[in-house]
Write a structure and sequence with these properties.
single chain, about 525 residues, alpha+beta, D-Maltodextrin-Binding Protein, domain 2, Dipeptide-binding Protein, domain 1, Dipeptide-binding Protein, domain 3, 3 domains, seven-stranded mixed beta sheet, about 30% helix
Length: about 525
């Protein structure tokens, strides 16, 4: 081979190598963002690791003293509770490592060891006692219900606390979701008067605070080493009004915020962002007084439930910010394992009534009862101060009129309505609750429930689920309860409010939200 040919051969090999290497580099660069697990922060390139949040009308960053919803949400990443709830409202241990139920009134909490406050001191049982007593003494009205039934908080040792209750509370552990405060930090002053910036044990810590921003940094001593944040800092921008927050979000200065479903588009438009709408705790339903002679028949109640179109009801009476709802747990609870939606089906409703001995004339359903002819008709009791519920009652009246069931409406003042409900002096009523986070259904199915509903098997289920943490048993018993609920229909779920978060399209991560916490998995969030 001549020297010229040899050099041409070597040159060709080099060229081929360089081309292949270039292709390899391009492919690797493309996989940096799209193909790599976002938890593997060391492999990500061209990302921004600062997050921008917002608070309007800041009162205090102290999670026990604040009345600000924005603060209550954000402080969940600064101040840890004993237990938290995941995206499905399932309980997870945080500062508590174990909770044992000694009897119906006694709980022993073993605390996680090695947890440090953000000033380097140890988290201990004294801090738990201190926090509970602060709330019981009125420092934090928003958490007062959580500790309402605790009569004694006893420190057994530095990592063990015993709680005694005044009466049994189903799923009591779900009440222990309030943020912990450091007892030593406030040892020499009155917590209620202190203007000190509280320290926490959370995944982020406050590094500085000014008139327009609160800066958070990762907590380097955080107890859960598996939750190393991708964000290297979080800037919480402070605004005077919610309108300013919306404008800042629209201008790309805020990454995520909660919003009002009914007016958000007026401020930020329809495009250029993502949103998550989720069901809230505000739940309205139609309750039957099952002690009433006609309404004591499950066939009648089920037929009525099959004759109401909830989608039409919500669209006609409520609009944005509401969603049809079928059951108290359908806001995403982990024990809501069966679809309990009931679609309108008047043919099936008619068949159910026929099978139960009812006959339809031109404009009514009739049945012989104890030698007399009864017509299927009832009244709906409603609070006149609640315009939405009045509209819903009237819509139900109109829908059922098309099915030959006449309905009258009892319009009562708030006081009279409250008396009627408490004394069970109604046939049916539109009622509502702000639900807790636990899967407790005692209000609806326990003894003395609002519907006067009495079913021996259901009461047995209530007793079992209130005294077990075995998930297999819970799944089994709730599944059976759902079957009974669909057949006997002591209530008709109607609708619930919805909440919303909006976030910029540049925000990346496993972004989920529920009404307990909008910052689930925040350690995996970043911007690009």
């Amino acid at each position: 081979m001549s020297n010229n040919n040899f050099f041409k051969y070597i040159f060709s090999i080099v060229v081929v190598f360089l081309v292949l290497y270039t292709i390899y580099v391009i492919v690797q660069n493309k996989t940096d963002i799209s193909d790599v697990n976002p938890d593997q922060t060391s492999t990500l390139t061209n990302i921004q690791t600062d997050l921008r949040l917002a608070i309007s009308q800041l009162d205090t960053i102290n999670p026990l003293k604040t009345n600000n919803k924005d603060v209550q949400e954000i402080t969940k990443i600064i101040y840890d509770p004993l237990v938290t709830l995941n995206e499905n409202y399932k309980l997870e241990y945080y500062l508590a490592e174990e909770i044992a139920k000694s009897d119906d009134l006694t709980y022993v909490i073993k605390l996680r060891k090695g947890v440090l406050w953000q000033d380097g001191t140890n988290f201990t049982a004294d801090d738990v006692k201190f926090t509970i007593e602060l709330i019981q003494n009125g420092v934090s009205p928003i958490y007062s219900e959580n500790v309402k039934y605790i009569t004694e908080t006893e420190v057994i040792d530095s990592s063990t606390v015993k709680l005694r209750l005044s009466n049994p509370v189903p799923f009591f552990e779900y009440n222990l979701t309030f943020p912990m405060m450091c007892q030593k930090y406030y040892a020499d002053e009155d917590f209620t008067l202190s203007d000190k910036l509280p320290i926490g044990t959370g995944i982020f810590k406050i590094s500085e605070i000014s008139s327009n921003v609160i800066k958070l940094l990762p907590n380097d001593t955080y107890w859960d080493t598996n939750r190393k944040p991708m964000a290297t800092e979080i800037n919480i921008n402070l605004y005077n009004t919610l309108g300013e927050c919306y404008l800042a979000f629209k201008n790309g200065e805020v990454d995520v915020l909660t919003a009002n479903v009914t007016d958000i588009e007026n401020y930020i438009g329809n495009l250029g962002y993502n949103k998550i709408e989720y069901k809230s705790r505000e739940y309205d339903f139609l309750v039957f007084n099952t002690a009433n002679e006609l309404l004591s028949d499950p066939a009648v109640r089920k037929a009525i439930s099959l004759s109401i179109d909830k989608n039409t009801l919500v669209a006609s009476c409520l609009g944005k910010g509401y969603a049809p709802s079928n059951f108290s747990l359908d806001m995403g609870n982990w024990l809501y394992t069966k679809d309990l939606s009931v679609s309108i089906d008047t043919e099936q409703a008619a068949q159910i009534l026929n099978n139960a001995g009812w006959e339809r004339t031109s404009n009514s359903w009739q049945k012989r009862l104890e030698g007399r002819t009864e017509k299927l008709a009832f009244s709906i009791t409603v609070n006149t101060n609640n315009e939405a519920r009045v509209a819903v009652a009237e819509n139900i009246r109109d829908q059922l009129a098309n099915f030959a069931i006449p309905v009258t409406i009892n319009y009562l003042s708030f006081e009279s309505y409250t008396d009627a409900i408490n004394n069970r002096n109604f046939e049916t009523a539109i009622s509502g609750l702000k639900l807790g986070y636990s899967p407790n259904l005692t209000t609806f199915f326990g003894e003395g429930n609002i519907a006067n509903y009495n079913n021996g098997e259901v009461l047995e289920i209530m007793s079992i689920v209130s005294n077990t943490t075995d998930e297999n048993i819970l799944y089994e018993k709730y599944a059976r309860l759902y079957d009974i609920y669909l057949e006997e229909a002591p209530y008709i779920g109607l609708y619930r409010n919805t909440d919303i978060i909006v976030y910029n399209q540049s925000l990346v991560g496993n972004i989920t939200a529920n009404c307990f916490n909008i910052f689930h998995n925040i350690e995996k969030w970043y911007r690009r």
